[in-house]
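Continuing the batch. This is chain 6 of the set; chains 1 through 5 are on the previous pages. Same settings as before, nothing changed between runs. Recording input and output for traceability.
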Amino acid sequence: MANPKLNVKKGDTVVVLSGKDKGKQGKIVQAMPAKGKVIVEQINVVKRHTKPSVKYPQGGIIEKEMPLHVCKVQLICPACGKPTRVAHKQVNGKNARACKKCGEVIDQTKAKD
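Output for chain 6:
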């Protein structure tokens, strides 16, 4: 089975739709298309008891962000600032994401000079 395509990318601002962090906004730090999950900064933070290791020589209780399923987050349009679903449009012969509410293109093509 092929990896499912996500409608959100690393760096997008999203709002959480359900769970203990419902209504909170944050930026996507990491997207995992194979698992269908995303990690959002300062959302779904858990305390992890760790033994001393090379990475954490002191050990102790460490706070870390855990993944959320992608269906629990919704993209916030940078143009209108509202949570929206994602439409797909053709812009200059390439596929781009667009806002369903205002129709504005979310992905800006970067021109190389």
